[in-house]
Design a protein that fits this description.
By secondary structure, this protein is α+β, with helices and mostly antiparallel strands. It is built from 6 helices and 15 strands.
Length: 208
């Protein structure tokens, strides 16, 4: 695997709206520093739902991006989903909570699936896209930064599977907002899941 694109975005105000968004991300060719809060030069506007140490970096697999191109019947540029990184040779369906990605001297750890929203639907020009995204079961994903460093497009990527209970991010996306059985809660307690999910388990549900 290799890092196909590194994307960052500046705050932009959508037509007819007052609040800015950082979803409009575009590839950069230079090296980019990655720290606990994400990529240097990137913007996270809605801190309630995005960003922070548990969602520092958003990742898409290029196999999945190409699948969406076929589904749309048109090109989809890097950064179109609001992702920071696109990894060549990666299918989002293969990623589980706790999987790690080693890129140069940076180590990332998957924490949760990227959930679709109205702004993403607007970005892609399809009002029904959020529902399509959920139905497809191929979510991009958020990562915490285990080791900071510098990355650039073209760097090799190593995918290390979590050595324990595997909760695929596509599975986790289906669990979001639902009550959880004691057995399912125990599964989640055994993986390095997103902190908000861990907090929700005490209430018998899975939310992030």
């Amino acid at each position: 695997m290799r890092l196909l694109a590194v994307c960052v975005g500046k705050p932009q105000v959508r037509l007819g709206k007052k609040t800015p968004t950082g979803i409009n991300k575009h590839p950069v060719m230079s090296e980019v520093a990655v720290g606990p809060e994400g990529l240097e030069g990137d913007t996270i506007c809605n801190r309630k739902h995005h960003g922070g140490p548990e969602q520092a970096v958003c990742v898409e697999g290029n196999i999945t991006r190409l699948w969406w191109e076929d589904a749309f019947g048109q090109d989809i540029s890097h950064g179109a989903f609001g992702e920071n990184l696109c990894i060549d040779g990666l299918d989002n369906r293969s990623v589980a909570v706790g999987d790690r990605f080693l890129i140069g001297n940076v180590i990332l750890e998957a924490t949760a699936p990227r959930m679709p929203c109205r702004i993403l639907s607007e970005r892609l020009g399809d009002p029904a896209f959020a529902k399509r995204y959920l139905a497809a079961g191929r979510p991009g994903f958020y990562c915490r930064v285990i080791k900071s460093g510098v990355i650039a497009a073209g760097h090799p990527v190593a995918h290390e599977r979590f050595d324990g209970v595997r909760i695929l991010l596509s599975e986790m996306m289906q669990h979001h907002g639902k009550k959880a059985s004691p057995d399912l809660i125990q599964r989640y307690l055994e993986v390095p899941v997103h902190a908000r999910v861990r907090a929700s388990l005490a209430q018998g549900s899975i939310k992030f």
